[in-house]
Predict the structure.
Amino acid sequence: MPKFPTFPTLFDDCKTISISDLKRWKYLEPNTWQNGTITWSRNGNRTGRISITINTYKENPYIELDYKCNGNPINYRVQLITITSNLGRGVIWFFVCPATGMYCRKLYLVDTYFYHRTAFRGCMYEKQTQSHYSRNLGKQFDRFFGSDKAYELIYSKHFKKKYGGKFTKRYLKLLRRIEAG
């Protein structure tokens, strides 16, 4: 008898806040206090908007989230923490999840609050919902069409073929994929 479908919430479709985006938008400059807005859209239509306030002073860094969910106003703080890089240059920023206390670089909005993905039950990534047959079929198509994607990547605008006079590992891997396909 087949399994009854559960139609889980997919992390791929959730609204997220990531440290990488905040850093790219220059919100994580040291010793600053900034306000801003994050907007999500799909196919040109705005699907969500959130106001943020970021405090990066060393005493108590945090990000304050202010938004409406299902008509209810929500306002809370998520602590930020820095850890020195293993390279000895600079620091790495992390969120401290309000629900689990875990350090994370991405927060997901599944129900009402932005939390780490382990705080939610019954949520999956899209790849986890595919059958083994579908996954294997995708691998077979990648064998045929993967060389086309690799070719496009190698000749894209800012692709680095060499670093320090040597070919990069990524470049060599893509070359092998082109030769195999």
In short: The helical segments are 19-24, 126-129, 132-154, 169-180. The chain is about 25% helix and 40% strand.
